[in-house]
Amino acid sequence: MTSSFFPPQRTLMGPGPSDVSPRVLGAVSRPTIGHLDPLFVQLMDEIKGLLQYAFQTENELTIPVSAPGSAGMEACFVNLVSPGDTVIVCQNGVFGGRMKENVERCGGIAVMVEDAWGEPVSVDKTRAAFAEHPEATLLAFVHAETSTGVKSDAAALCALAKENNALSIVDTVTSLAGIELKVDAWGADAVYSGTQKCLSCIPGISPVTFSPAAVERIQNREHKVQSWFLDMQLVMGYWGANTKRAYHHTAPVNDLYALHESLVMLQEEGLENAHARHQRNHEALVAGLEAMGLSMAVAAEHRLPQLNAVNIPEGVDDAAVRTALLQDFNLEIGAGLGALAGKTWRIGLMGYASSPRNVVTCLTALEAVLSRQGATINVGAALPAAKALLTD
Amino acid sequence: MTSSFFPPQRTLMGPGPSDVSPRVLGAVSRPTIGHLDPLFVQLMDEIKGLLQYAFQTENELTIPVSAPGSAGMEACFVNLVSPGDTVIVCQNGVFGGRMKENVERCGGIAVMVEDAWGEPVSVDKTRAAFAEHPEATLLAFVHAETSTGVKSDAAALCALAKENNALSIVDTVTSLAGIELKVDAWGADAVYSGTQKCLSCIPGISPVTFSPAAVERIQNREHKVQSWFLDMQLVMGYWGANTKRAYHHTAPVNDLYALHESLVMLQEEGLENAHARHQRNHEALVAGLEAMGLSMAVAAEHRLPQLNAVNIPEGVDDAAVRTALLQDFNLEIGAGLGALAGKTWRIGLMGYASSPRNVVTCLTALEAVLSRQGATINVGAALPAAKALLTD
Q1: What whole-number distance in Å separates Cα of residue A316 and Cα of residue A323?
Q2: What is the pLDDT of residues B11-55, one digit of tens each?
Q3: How is B156-182 classified by DSSP, letter by letter?
Q4: Quick one: B319 and B359 in the same domain?
Q5: Are A341 and A210 within one domain?
Q6: Using a CB-CB distance cutoff of 8 angstroms, which residues of chain A are in contact with residue B267?
Q7: Higher pLDDT, B137 or A391
Q8: CB pair distance less than 8 Å for B35 and A17
Q9: Which among A284, B35, B194, B217 is most buried, taking Cβ atoms within 10 Å?
């Protein structure tokens, strides 16, 4: 017989899921109600409004897709790419490669703009790709690369798409609520995110927003969207404001309680304050890491405050360090992904996990484990350096 | 400012979501751990084993898809249908129609076998369809039609597919854990379900299982699966037993805590006991409804014990009755769907909600509301008739 599962209380400082607020865990376990219950419909409306705030948009089609961020990504591509379409895809990490897969599985042609892992997307190279491919109807890029901890210039890339009469698809899985994201001001057309990063919500849901121009393109498609589950014309019938709600699928009721609560918390704090908090804790962590003698993998001007890529010191056993952090300190940090496996650690300070307590926990634990491994570090230097920059 | 959401405690006797056990709600709010945490990997293995028990299968590829039942359906179709394939689709309610949509969006040709809503799928008609379409590579049907409350003969239909060298895709969203379902004994090839029906879990996850023959067809595909998110070859890399787990998407960690707990509860009760409980409470409900003077919409031999379709008495205001049940008794029952809208109610007795208490609650509330509406019913007759058949 299999027994009930009781997980330990970890501190989640990897690339996500991040620590979930007790308020959110309280919300997810509230009694389930029907997905067509009038009170649930009211909750759906509130979630739309709260997501509009988080995305800084007035887009009517702003909803949570009932599946993880990968499905939110796919929702953007299957609705906007038609067979034969040319899509410019910027890749500077793992997730640009996934975008390429999405384009090709929709029958589209992906024109790749490649930048090194750890560098931002080059706006100049992207401009050149448009010049070479004036037929491109879409530009897709990642705002905050979770695999490398790099921020790209989303405002400039969205503007470039507009100049070239293309729509933009923007991955904001790791950026939403962690750094500035202005969907309307930047003119982003299809934007997806995840709940398990800077929203500090449980994983499993993907907020998306589509501009009026994107909705128009969806409504004028000649080919049916290849996914029934992700067909926004059908989903709109369930989430839409101006229609009698038509049953499409059973919404993940409790997950949406959790998302609602995390968005209420974001609204209470205010976006600007949330961004400032992420920045402050990031600076303290970096000061501590550098005082310890470690180096950051990304140039200062391109760093994401919510995801800190650190070079693994030579001679240190990557997996052994992460295992010790987990076993002895219940602390999870992230391994490198793809080309950066074994070369970097990714230390998340996302949402609820972006706290002075976590900065201190991480520096203390990392120092202890690295010392034990015989790494050459400055013992005792990290905490004072970090604390000088921390406020509570 | 938007405030936190506190739902009322409903009694969920619609077509799902059904009442969620307090044990499951307790599990979902346990601390989130990482989706690559060794303890989470262990949880994944336990879930696979528990799902194998629930499905009565030894299929290695038995996993929860990280999205609702509609996505589980789509996972079966996108992985098994290639462009140009002929698929025989049986339709006797809403969900057969959705299967047709899936086939067509995969570039397949759907040959429809139509039966009246409220009737089971005709095995004879299906046999005739195979005779007319020997090129068919798949047979798709719904075991338990949620829109009508009808059970079809899944064993016979799976056998028929085998005789014709076709694979079977079986919708068991409403049947799993409520009535007999023997994936291996029946030779079903691709089977999907949902968490929010007889598993009494929160909505949002779709258990699926694929036979070795189905896996072989997936591995020999010439066209890439059109969905990246639902591509089982990629998902297998994350859930597979024989590989180093490869990151595919972030699993919905807390939802899987909930699913695990609901499956542990099913294992504790035992499948046969769970089926017997569903049958017993169903018989009591029907006895009560008929004593009240109402009639069932489905012939006795085809009824699902977990979903009871009742004819709405003439002159009774459908919506007003359901609203009164919800507002005055916090009781949700289901409206008719599609062709049966306004003609039937669907009363669920699923999983944790299949209890003597819910039978009594429903009969009492319905009698009160129908009396108030001036319907011609036998007041006072329902409870004694039901209680004679109830055990606690």
Answers
A1: 13
A2: 999 999 999 999 999 999 999 999 999 999 999 999 999 999 999
A3: HHHHHHHHTT-EEEEE-TTTTTTS---
A4: yes
A5: no
A6: 1-2
A7: B137
A8: yes
A9: B194
